[in-house]
Amino acid sequence: MNKRAPISESSEWTFEALEAFEEEIARIAADKYRLDTYANQIEIISADQMMDAYSSVGMPVGYHHWSFGKQFLSTEQRYRKGHIGLAYELVINSNPCIAYLMEENSLTLQALVIAHACFGHNSFFKGNYLFREWTDASAIVNYILFARNYITECEERHGMEAVEALLDSCHALMNLGVDRFRRPRPISADEEKKRQQDREDYLQQQVNDLWRTIPQKKEEPEEQWPRYPADPQENLLYFIEKNAPLLEPWEREIVRIVRKIAVYFYPQRQTKIMNEGWATFWHYNLMNDLYEEGLIGEGNVLEFLQSHTNVIYQPEFDSPYYSGINPYTLGFAMFTDIRRVCENPTDEDKRFFPEHAGTDWLETVHHAMANYKDESFILQYLSPKVIRDLKLFSILDDDADRAIQVTAIHDDAGYRQVREELADQYNISKQEPDIQIWEVSLRGDRSITLRHTQQERIPLDEDDAKEVLKHVHRLWRFDVHLESVRDEKAHLLYHCNDEKVWTESGENSKTEAKS
Amino acid sequence: MAFLIIDRRQQGKQKSAVNRQRFLKRFRKHIKEAVTDAVNKRSITDMERGEEISIPRKDVSEPIFRQGKGGKQRRVLPGNKEFIRGDRIDRPKGGSGGSGGKASNQGEGMDEFVFELNQQEFLDFMFEDLELPNLVRKQLKDSDSYKLVKGGYTRDGIPARLNVVQSLRGAKARRIALSGAIRREIKALEQELEAFGDDDESEERREITEKLVRARRRVNHIPFLDDFDLRYNNMIQQPTPTTSAVMFCVMDVSGSMTQDIKDLAKRFFVLLHLFLKRHYEKTEVVFIRHHTKADEVDEEEFFYSRETGGTVVSTALELMKTIIHERYPTDSWNIYAAQASDGENWQDDSPKCRDLLVKSLLPLVQYFAYVEISSQKEQELWQTYTEILDTFSDRFAMRNVSEPADIFPVFRDLFERKSK
After folding, report:
1. CB proximity B66 to A under 8 Å
2. pLDDT > 70: percent of chain A
3. Dihedral sign computed on CA atoms, order B194, B197, B200, B202
4. In this structure, which long-range contacts are made by residues A285-289, counting pairs with CB atoms below 8 Å and at least 24 apart in sequence?
5. CATH code of the region B245-415
6. CA–CA separation, B146 vs B279, rounded Å?
7. Which of residues 309-348 of A touch B (CB under 8 A)?
8. What is the Cα–Cα distance from A355 to A381, expressed in whole angstroms?
9. Per-residue confidence at B97, pLDDT binned at 50, 70, 90?
10. B14: distance to nearest CA of chain A, Å?
């Protein structure tokens, strides 16, 4: 291959050089690797602006809330003290795909980041089934703008405190604002605006209907009434939006906004390994291609390799730097390994992966990217070699046992178990408590009962649970009960009314007055 | 592949400013406590910088339902060295460690949420709710402050001041005036036309119809909005009365004042000075220090020079009285005074001080604050001043300070905004 001249030998970036890199990377990504992306919008920002971007948790614009200020202060403090470095980039799942690049990055880093974010993440957003089903990249920026304006308007009309309190409560239930088993309709700002008024009127009417009291014969026994809701509901925010008796229309709309944003983030929460792994895998390949074509000089490629090595560094479990499994490391190792299994399968690989050992590697990684989430991806593709390389082992921490037990290590007997347990570690429904709406007392005191189903005897975090109950109460405005189900039997955990949270035994749990 | 590179660096970086303010507002109680602590710990020259504030993490946490400790927790970890299947490891001390790294998702797992308050915010919190008591507006003194008030409408102005209602009202009046005659004509023509039957093809009818069409066209040609309909809000400058105030800082530097006591006194005045500089830009400050004789000094000397001697408090009050008469006529100045002393005085001087205060000074000032710095109560001056406390409770206040931690609370106490 004819070597071309490097785009630039300098370490300082210029707009011309960025454009040249973008063009070259786009060419290789499309022609050689068939990466399908949204159009790119690259924005150069300063460190301060990056901290701003951090605090709106990956939304290009956000509504105002103190928790974002807290996020900002915390980032600022840790950055100024040198505890953390800021990311080189931040990318937003939108169409066009917005990528923020830090001005401090050297030219090599900017090239790496363009490959990583603008082609890696971008193609993942466009190709992965979760993102395709759950989010509408072309509508999100407009929707968030709509949400922000709506919430500002509410603040003007109903007071900042009221809106803030409502948002606090919604945020507490945000993770429970998703229908895991049903696909949502994509959201669009225009449509939302159009429908919002109709919905307000109609909703209120519906709710009022639900609570209409109908005179009944006295002797009819209570048990004959069908339970409401007929089936337990996992989407707490949706249920509250549609059924909470006393919410004002604007409050319902805000509940809805938080719910929609939760849905937008839902795919990201489930694809950390894959998303980062995919982006890292491609920046590695694309940068190497640029080097081979001569577009990156010798000096710059060393800088790239160093950054890349830092990114995929995995401290061991007993290191003081250990803070969980590095998604970049695991994801990169897995995608690289899929390629290896396709190109040079060993006997072991053929045993473990009869479907894709020896197939076209590009086809296979694209298929994996498009059709899996972290949990299923690990279950399907984590190979014994990666387990050996990372020296993964699984432990069981049972509070009924005095010691922690090592249940599997990287040997023939352990590969499958390690793989299954690692997959579980990325399964949201196993990592977050299972809480559903069990019953609403329509004819009684209008109280709502939540049910927590324990898995593996793991209890709820009590302090937080009590606080969250107060938030549920603020939305529902009548008594709230929380039950926990263990061994098929429900135990009452807490009650919450206007003033306090208490447990069955009558002992008041410590609680401040509800604000 | 379409792409776009945008340089955002020049755009505002304070996107989070609103959220930051909201955070500060929500936790103002915590922050205020921390600020008060910080003020007491700092040295006298060190008031104008920010401060690291920490708040218990549980107070700023956002609760969600999450798994607690206990039960059977499984985890996969990297970097196995010597373990084999079936090994049993003792639990690390300090909990079962079973929460799977969820103990803290925002930082180093500390119990405190720590952040930096900048200098502006720090001072805001420090002087919140403080004000000079009894401040009134005195005579217009070299009015350099104006405010814009609405003063009718003008025919020209900038688009931002366009008054839509007035403009449209004018336009409507003009349209009515210009079209009145034509409309009358139209009405007449219409009546004439009615006299003819619908199928009348006569020349006369055709003529009237034509006239009618022409008249209607003329009405339509009157512009809906013409340039000279436009009216703009007129703004005129009005001088506003300014509040001019002067603060007399009177400090005892006599021999009985030990270095510690002087330090406390200086701290008090540093706070006062800072407060005035920040909230009352136009306030003048007069520094008076005294032992057996009183001098007016500048800021530098007041805070840093060392000089000692006996104590005759009345000299300082005399000097203050003279300065007021020479430079600060009461009809245009709000006069304040703060006096700090260890309370010791020349034997026969205290009654003289009292008389000076009652007869010459208190009638002139808006507020007189006396701070006695001593660990034993009831010094000479304190006792004498107690006698006038009742008569002038609206403008005379005294407090005792015995240790650094008292300074800020006393200061707040003296200058707290009284609800009216």
Report:
1. yes
2. 89
3. negative
4. A285/A33, A286/A25, A286/A28, A286/A29, A286/A33, A286/A115, A286/A119, A287/A111, A287/A112, A287/A115, A289/A28, A289/A32
5. 3.40.50.410
6. 19
7. 314-319, 322-325
8. 11
9. very low
10. 7
Nearest CA to A145 out of A35, A45, A59 is that of A59
Supply φ then ψ for residue B272, to 5 degrees: -60, -45
Is B75's CB within 8 Å of A395's CB?
Answer: yes
Record: contact B1-A454, CB cut-off 8 A: no
- The string of pLDDT tens digits covering residues A305-324 is 999 999 999 999 988 889 89
B291: tokens are 């032992």
Where along chain A do its domains lie?
15-128+271-307, 140-211+227-270, 335-430, 433-503
Buried b (16+ CB within 10 A) or exposed e, B369-379: bbbbbbeeeeb
Instruction: Look at B77 and A399 and tell me if their CB atoms are within 8 Å.
Output: no
How far A119 CA lies from chain B's nearest CA (Å)? Answer: 11
Q: Are A176 and A435 in contact (CB under 8 A)?
A: yes
> Which residue in A43, A175, A176 is closest to B8 by CB distance?
A43
CA distance A293 to chain B (A): 20
A428 CA to chain B: closest CA distance, Å?
A: 11
Please give the backbone phi and psi of residue A210, each rounded to the nearest 5 degrees, phi first: -60, -35
Q: Any CB–CB contact under 8 A between B71 and chain A? A: yes
> Residues B175-195: what's their mean pLDDT?
87
8 Å CB contact of B65 and A424: no
pLDDT for res B9: 83
Measure the CA–CA gap between B90 and A405, rounded to whole angstroms.
9
**Helix (H/G/I), strand (E/B), else coil: B78:** coil
Distance CA A189, CA A196 (A): 10
> Buried (b) or exposed (e) across A386-409, using 16+ Cβ within 10 A?
bbeebbbbbbbbbbeeeebbbbbb
Residues of B in contact with A83 (CB under 8 A): 108
Contact: B13, A314; criterion CB under 8 Å: no
Mutate which of A86, A401, A404, A472 to disrupt the B interface (most B C-beta within 10 Å)? A404
Q: Which of B71, B100, B114 sits opposite A77 (nearest CB)?
A: B114
- B residues 106-165 closer than 8 Å to A (CB): 106-108, 113-116
A462 has a pLDDT exceeding 70 = yes
Q: How do residues A51-84 score in pLDDT, each as one tens digit?
A: 888 877 667 678 899 988 888 888 888 888 877 7
Q: What is the mean pLDDT of residues A200-220?
A: 60
Q: In which residue are the tokens 């919410």 written?
A: A247
Return the percentage of chain B with pLDDT > 70, whole number.
87
Interior angle at CA B71, CA B65 and CA B72, nearest 5: 115
Euclidean distance between CA atoms B417 and B420, whole angstroms: 9
User: Domain spans of chain B?
Assistant: 25-60+111-126, 159-235, 245-415
| Contact (CB<8Å) A39/B3 | yes
- For B66, the closest of A15, A173, A433 (CB atoms) is A433
Task: For chain A, say whether B418 makes contact (Cβ under 8 Å).
Answer: no
Helix-, strand-, coil-residue percentages of chain A, each rounded to 5: 55, 10, 35
Residues of A in contact with B2 (CB under 8 A): 39-40, 96
DSSP state of B418: P
Top residue of B4, B7, B19, B61 to mutate, by most chain A CBs within 10 Å, is: B19
Contact B357, B388 (CB under 8 A): yes
